Amino acid sequence: MQGRIGQLMDCEGGLLQLRPLRGGREWDADPARVRLATPAERLRAGVAAANAASRGALK
Question: Please, which pLDDT band fits residue 59 given cuts at 50, 70 and 90?
Answer without folding.
Answer: low
